[in-house]
Amino acid sequence: MSADMSLLGLISEASLLVKLVMLVLLLISLYSWTLIFKKRAELAEARRDADAFEDKFWSGNELNKLYEDITARPHSARGMEGIFETGFKEFIRLKKTVPDSNFVLEGTQRVMRISLAREIDQLEVSLPFLATAGSTSPYIGLFGTVWGIMNSFRALGEVQQATLAMVAPGIAEALIATAMGLFAAIPAVIAYNRYSHEVERLINRYDTFVEEFSSILQRQQS
Question: Model pTM?
């Protein structure tokens, strides 16, 4: 392969628009990989925190003691632990001021649902970008390919005798844009599908905990 047909040579000789397309796809790919590694660490930490809290919650310790241990920490609670802290705090407050046990339980559940919604929003951060990158990157790359091939055929129309050697570099540089689009899209799609499944499992665990904790509080009220 000649120097002009090398990967770097084709990229350097591409038209300005195709270069811009490649740059956009490169930035999308780099940002996607950053989010992929960051989200992987976040979800792993969320699973570990949920496992650790469930062990404490079902170990037979008193709820008051568990609540005091959580509130004594310098950092704010997150995940399942945060839902428990918010719910039990509201339960104590309502129990002291409201005589109606049903109202106390409903208020506690409402606060926990709000906390659950916040945790869901936090878990789903970055997923929309991965979905967008996975769905649009191939089309961005295809746009660069179409533009590059169009320029190649336009150049052919300006010569008397067309040869494969004349059109090959233009088509090759255009196809690089498609390859870069797929390179940006495939990891983003895989990560989105995997992380969406993991987020859904965590949401189900949080939601189940809200129901179980509500049942425990209801028994304490009766």
Answer: 0.82
